[in-house]
Amino acid sequence: MYALGTEPNGTENKTAALFDVNNLSVQINGQGVSFNVVDHLSFQLMAGESLAIVGESGSGKSVSMQALLGLHAGNHNIAVSGSVHLEGQELLSLSKKDMRKIRGERISLIAQDALAAMNPSLTVGFQITEPLMVHRGMSRKDANRRATELLDLVGIPAAASRLNDYPHEFSGGMRQRALIAMGLVLDPDILIADEPTTALDVTIQAQVLDLLNRLRKDLGMALIIITHDMGVVARVAERVLVMYSGTVVESGGVREVFRKPVHPYTEALLRAMPRMDQGDERLFSIAGFPPTPGQLPQGCRFHPRCHYARDECSQAPAPLLEISPSQATACRFWAENITEPRQETKRA
Ligand SMILES: Nc1ncnc2c1ncn2[C@@H]1O[C@H](COP(=O)(O)OP(=O)(O)O)[C@@H](O)[C@H]1O
Ligand SMILES: [Mg+2]
């Protein structure tokens, strides 16, 4: 829907998206039970664009990224359906071998647990140069030169002398930068960073987010940033998808969503964001918990936690409705519920 621009003469100008995810669903099949943890997720990403996917823990963000990269292939308990097109090519039907190539060369994932999972027994330099030698057939000397450039690019001082360091010799922030360098090693068109700054303190977090943004612009790649924190969304993304319980409940441009959220869950996430400009680090938390997959409430999945909820909300499901060319909401009562634009928040 975001690739549709309206020309002044009223005709639709359909620009091809780089990445087009349609009705992606992930079903978990356990002993005698089966339920969806991702339910008809659709989005498009244009070349060079930055998109945030935000939602509380358990909303299906990581699972969707793993699914669209074919990482559940061969797992008999997990069924992935829908379509994922990269420049028109369907990824979900690719062989494991071809998919591995896409993951290496076109779409790069910095996994949520990557910082903790970094191999402690291999030098940082080895972890960056290996894909260059394997995928690009580079000599060790050329690969070392490229690795130094990459560490330099992500802001590691005296990069050449750090190649032989082990991950534990780097600080947390430097390790995250090295992981980003590893993500960039094969010049991907899309970098997916899953909660890349959650383990870092606030100052370092801001530096790493600014780095991702700068790299996106300098290298012309698209960025998908996964987070539970609206502050991260404000800092890096142009567009945002808000996920709740495996579905998108709101999508739109970051500016418009911050100014006027049109789903009560988005509004609650924005209230849960620490306001650094007010020196207020206290978190407003959203009352209650997301539903357990497999035990979803009837009607709108958010209604048990929604302070605007009315009888209808527990009866009929809540499909995503386009309310403007750029913004969509899964709340039928958005126009009545959220009437006041928010005060402009000073971005974190
Ligand atoms: N391999 C798996 N098997 C069964 N359930 C899973 C698996 N991976 C994730 N889930 C469930 O899917 C839901 C979404 O998880 P996840 O995508 O990790 O959430 P998020 O990244 O938004 O925090 C959770 O309820 C989680 O328990
Ligand atoms: Mg996750």
Task: Note the topology.
Layout: E1 4-6, E2 12-14, E3 19-29, E4 34-45, E5 50-54, H1 61-68, E6 78-86, E7 89-90, H2 96-105, E8 107-110, H3 114-117, H4 124-136, H5 140-153, H6 159-162, H7 172-184, E9 190-194, H8 202-219, E10 222-227, H9 230-236, E11 239-244, E12 247-253, H10 254-259, H11 264-271, E13 321-322, E14 328-329, H12 334-337
Parallel strand pairs: 5-10, 5-11, 8-9, 9-10
Antiparallel strand pairs: 1-2, 3-4, 3-6, 6-7, 11-12, 12-14, 13-14
Helix pairs in contact: 4-5, 5-7, 7-8
The structure holds adenosine-5'-diphosphate (ADP) and magnesium ion.
CATH topology: Rossmann fold
Major β-sheet strand ordering: 8-9-10-5-11-12-14-13
Cofactors, ions and other ligands in the entry: adenosine-5'-diphosphate, magnesium ion
DSSP, total strands: 14
What's the quick description here?
The protein has 348 residues and is α/β, with parallel strands linked by helices. The chain has helices at 61-68, 96-105, 114-117, 124-136, 140-153, 159-162, 172-184, 202-219, 230-236, 254-259, 264-271, 334-337, and strands spanning 4-6, 12-14, 19-29, 34-45, 50-54, 78-86, 89-90, 107-110, 190-194, 222-227, 239-244, 247-253, 321-322, 328-329.
Q: How does this structure look, described?
A:
The chain has 348 residues and is an alpha/beta fold. It has 12 helices and 14 strands. Strands 8-9-10-5-11-12-14-13 form an 8-stranded mixed sheet, with helices on both faces. It has a 4-stranded antiparallel sheet with strand order 4-3-6-7. The protein has a two-stranded antiparallel sheet with strand order 1-2. It has helices at residues 61-68, 96-105, 114-117, 124-136, 140-153, 159-162, 172-184, 202-219, 230-236, 254-259, 264-271, 334-337; strands at 4-6, 12-14, 19-29, 34-45, 50-54, 78-86, 89-90, 107-110, 190-194, 222-227, 239-244, 247-253, 321-322, 328-329. 31% of the residues lie in helices and 22% in strands. 40% of the residues are buried. The protein has a single domain (4-106, 188-289, 297-337), classed as P-loop containing nucleotide triphosphate hydrolases (Rossmann fold), CATH 3.40.50. The site of magnesium ion has 4 residues, from helix 1.
